[in-house]
Specification:
mainly alpha, two-stranded antiparallel sheet, 2 helices, 2 strands, 47% helix, elongated
Length: 53
């Protein structure tokens, strides 16, 4: 779990693809850095989607 720069929390439950505790921590830190670098995708709501179709 971490906070986006705008303060919103992000939580994702995923099993780390490594076996050790230190490896899982390193993987989690890498995952967080990757998510922060890519940023969030804008998700349209249903009303916007319906108007487009």
């Amino acid at each position: 779990m971490f906070k986006w720069p705008d303060g919103e929390l992000y939580h994702e439950r995923v099993k780390a693809p490594v076996g050790s505790k230190s490896g899982a921590k390193a993987w989690g830190e890498q995952r967080q850095a990757e998510l922060l670098s890519r940023g969030r995708k804008a998700v349209e709501d249903f009303r916007t989607f319906a108007e487009r179709c």
